[in-house]
Structure formats: structure tokens, C-alpha cells
Amino acid sequence: MANQDKNNNDNNNFFNKNPLITFAIFSIVIIGLFKIVVGDGASANGTALGATNKHIQKVSYSEMKSLVDSKSVSKVEIGQTYIKANSSDGSKVYTTRIVKGDTDLVKALDKNKIDYEGFSETNWFTEMFGWLFPFLIIIGIWMFFAGRMQKSMGGGLLGMGQSKKMVNSEKPKTKFDDVAGVEEAKEEVQEIVDFLKYPARYVEIGAKIPKGVLLVGSPGTGKTLLAKAVAGEAEVPFFSVTGSSFIEMFVGVGAARVRDLFEQAKKDAPSIIFIDEIDAIGKSRANGANMGGNDEREQTLNQLLAEMDGFGTDTPVIILAATNRPEILDQALLRPGRFDRQVLVDKPDFEGRVKILKVHMKDVKMDKDVDVEEVARLTAGLAGADLANIINEGALLAGRRSQKTVKQKDLFESVERALAGLAKKSRRINPKEKKIVAYHESGHALLAETTVGAKKVSKVSIVPRGLAALGYTLNKPEENKFMMQKHELWAEVDVLLGGRAAEQVFIGEISTGAGNDLERATDIIKSMVQTYGMTDIAGLMVLEKTRQSFLGAGGAAAREYSDKMAEDMDTFIKESLQEHYELVVKRLEEYRDAIEDMVALLYKKENITGEEVREIIHSFEEKNGLESKLDDSIDEISEELKVDASMIDKSDESSDEK
Ligand code: ADP
Ligand code: ZN
Rounded to the nearest 10 degrees, how much is the dihedral formed by the CA atoms of 217, 221, 222, 224? Predict the structure, then answer.
């Protein structure tokens, strides 16, 4: 069935790709047909006289007149432009052009009693054709241009509103082993592989498998590769599209393509649909910038949502989508049953880079002098794609120098090139920034570990992610699914302030990196006053209802409390932030050496685990005879404390000029 479609498409393709030729063939056929059926004037009219095989002789008008006068003709037919006359013996047909304004001929016919009549030189066919011809030309020209337009957009005229040709599935050979340095992400998608392999197991038990998984990460971190590997591991067809390819000139085409894509994927189930750059269709509709916006995009998005809702969890079709800007996605896409699961595909840390480099070195002849770790050390902040490129560039350089193997110096050169290229795009973190980030993050980590009620650290990282999104994975208190107690909220404030305080204590100057932390700390205190009745400012009075923000963030509600209350609240927030900040600074000064140790370890490894953080704090406390502030009673692990959103925002915005 699929094959048949393909053949059809191949046929269509020829005509779609050559609209001019199509048009020419089309015209020739029509004109040819016209000639055959209508023929040229004289012979056609010979036919009309029922004298197909009679000899036709063109004569002058005066000759015709004398033929009439001599009664050499018997029957005469008079048209608009010419006259035909049958010779009396029936052997010939004479034709001549009419002379306008001459009436003598008719008089002569009357006089000689020759039978005559008028006739119409056109018949229904030529009449109709005369009407149709201009339209045919117009249609031809339209087809030509439409064809070109479609071609430039990768579609085809005859395939308009149909997408079968753009839905190409493959069965990738990519395996998880080909994707290196993103172990966490691989673990998270492992379950999907299992489901696609043995759907029945899950369906029988009634387990709900996620339909949509959003792969979040900077460009080149291996999102596409990971999606392919899922298909490769599960040995299922992989349907790959890019979000932007749905957005076509003609409204409705994108939606139709989505429909066809899902139809095909369901038919070939179990299967995987991969939508790269989903932000192209999934941009938030609430976003003011596209107000009155893009109908086509909206239709496409709606169709996608409808399709995702349209099949049950028992249909083994998994939709993987990639984006590096999850924060701009329409909330509707992220609801349960859609892309409700997100997998972070991070830029690799040192170890990850070693692994990725090794994967790509497998197929290249490397010299014995090559030191993978050295290359990995030099490439902090680069994504998998950059690393793959470095190896390839190195191989090209070696080839140009007619070497048999790739040497370390080739790799160095290629690293240098890559870095120079990226420095321009400022995707790489510079040493000064690295230092600030290291202290900032260590500050967060220390506070998280030494404050009662704070969530513990799972990982601290200074790997630049170029991901404006991280702030997005954080739960604001009002969106928190689980309850939080008052002291836990204050603990969170302390942890948030820890980053900025560390910058002040250890670097002596504040960067813009803490902006987002402060915003969130402020929000937390505000909610405690306004919503949770946790302070004396408003007592139990609720100043702000927890609002569903389906209208986007915009809808400013009228304030329902006094100016005095507002003033009190502002003062309270400001003062308690200051109070807590001072305490945090004190703590950092007390634990100075522990922070220095963390920073040193971060410099070495880029990522450090919560255990390592606790280890450092623990040995510091022992050495200094401090009573341990490490809290073992809480086993909640914070996933959030990685790189700060605000820290990244900066580097990302400048690099992502797209
Ligand atoms: P993304 O989809 O995240 O932009 P891709 O998956 O297209 O990135 O990565 C492009 C190429 O870079 C891959 O085909 C692969 O060769 C290389 N690459 C990227 N990330 C990795 C990784 N984690 N492991 C191995 N190779 C990688
Ligand atoms: Zn921070």
C-alpha cells in the first residue's frame, strides 16, 4: 500500500518538477486535438457539404460570378467569409472569399434560379474551443507558477494538501551506543523503547505510556540522534519532519500534512514520529508578538493537538519532539496526554565529551599520540555536533597533509578553528564567566545543604548549556504540586540568595546572573504574604487568588486591597530579603574553604554530584570542629540546582541569533 503511494508520487513528481514541460505537452495535445477534429476551414466545410473526396478548387470572386452566370454551379452556400459552390456535374467544389458589400451575386443566383443558402462557418466544437482557449492558457500559466512555488517549498502541485511524499519513514540503524554523554536522557527514553518493542505487555496491564516526549537541549546536543536511536533500538519506523516544513504558503496544507503524517505512522505502528524544531509550530499563542497571527501555524498546531488526543495510549506511536526553547511553547502542547514528559539533552561534561569523541573516533584512523582527554579538556561547552565536526576536520587536515593517521596536532588545529568560530557566536563560556558561575553555583549548593528544609542537591554544573529554558523547569511555589511548609519556603529563599551572596563574598562584585534568583525569591515571599497567609502583614487575608493563567500572563487583575497593605507588603518583602541575605553571607563566610573546594572540583569536573558536595561540607565541618548543619532527615533531592537559568539566558540569547 505504502509502495503504491510511492509510485504514484514518483509519477506526479515528474510533472510537478517540470511544470513548463507539462504545460507545453498539454498545449500541444489540445491544439493537436483541435486540428484533428476541426481540421482547417475548407476541408471541414467540404465535409459539411457531404463532399469529402470532391476536388476543391479555389477561384476568384469574379470567376465565381461567371460560374453562376453560366449556371455551371448547382448549389451554393454562403458563409460569413467565403462561399462554396458545387459544380453542376457534382465533381468539384469551388470556393472563394466574399467581397463585402457586393449584392450582385445573390441577384445573379436568383436570376439563374440556383439553389443557395447561408451557413455558419463555425460549429459547436470550434465555438466552445474559442471560449475555452483563453481559460486553458490562464490555467496553464497558473499551474506553472504554482508548481514553481510549491517546488521551492518542497511540495508539489498535485500533492497539494497531501503530504505523503514528505512523510518519509526510515528504519534507522542508530543505537544507544552511538549517542554518548547523555546517560540520563538515554535512561529516560529507555522505557519508550521497551514499550515500542513489546506494546502488548503494557497495554494488557493498562499502563499509560507517554505519547509525547519533548527533547530539550541546545542545538547539536544529539536530540535527533537520540530520537533515531530510540527507533533503532526498538526497530520501528521513524517518521521525521521539521516544524517549519509544516508552515506553507497555503493555509490548511500544514494541517493536512499533520493528518497524513499521523495516519501513516498509525498504519505502520509501532512507530516513532519525530518533530524537529517544534517551536516553529508550537509557539505560544498567548504571545503578544503574533497576535492576530499566523492562521496557518495555528491550524497546524490545532491539528497536531487533535491528532495527539485522537489516539489512545494503546496505540504504539510515540511522538518525540525537539526544541531548544521550551519556554516559548504553547502551554496546550505540554498538557497531560501530549508532551507531558520532558527529557533534557544536556551539553556534555568532561566525561561526556570524552565518550562522544571516542564514538566519533571509531571510524577514523587515529594516531597513537592522540590524547582524547586533552581534546575534551579544551572543548568545554561544546555540543556533540561540534565534537563530531572537530574529529572530521582533523581527519580532513590529516588527509590534506597525506598522513596515514590523524595526529594530535591535527585535532588541536581543528579545535582551535571550532573555538574561533564559536567564540564569535559567544557560545562558549569565557574564563571570567566560568569563575563567576562556579562560585555562584557553589553558593546555592552550600545553602541547599546547610539549610533546614531546603531540597538537597543532586548535581551542580558549570557546563554552559546555552539553554534559556532552565528557569522554566523550576516550580514556582504556586505551581507546586506538593505542599510546602513555611520553613521550607524560607529555606528556598536562602538557597536562591546563596548564588548572589557567593558572588559578593568571593568575587567582590555582583553580576547580572542572579537576576532570576532574586525574582524567584521575591515571588516566594510575595506568595507567602498574598496567598498562603503565612505572615502578619495580611494575616489570613488572601490578597491574590491563585489564578489559572489560560489567558497568558497578561490579564492584570484589579487589586483588591488597600494602598497601605501594598506598602506594608513591599516593605516586608524588601526587609526580609535583606535579613535573609545577611544570614546567607554569614554562612558563606563561615564555610569559605568548603566553597573553595567545591569550586576547585567544579573546575576539574564541571559537574559534581550532591554526594561530592556533601562530602566536601562534611570534611570541612570535621576539620573545623563545627556542629554539622548537613541535614540527613530529608531525602528529597532537588533536580533543579544545576546551572542557573539567568546565567544561561545571557549566553544563549547572544548565540541564538536565529
Ligand atoms: P540536535 O538534534 O540536538 O540539534 P543532532 O542529533 O542533529 O543534534 O546532532 C548532530 C550530529 O552531532 C549527530 O548526527 C552526531 O554525529 C553528533 N552528535 C551530537 N550529539 C551527540 C552525542 N551525544 N553523541 C554522539 N554524537 C553526537
Ligand atoms: Zn543562581
Answer: 50
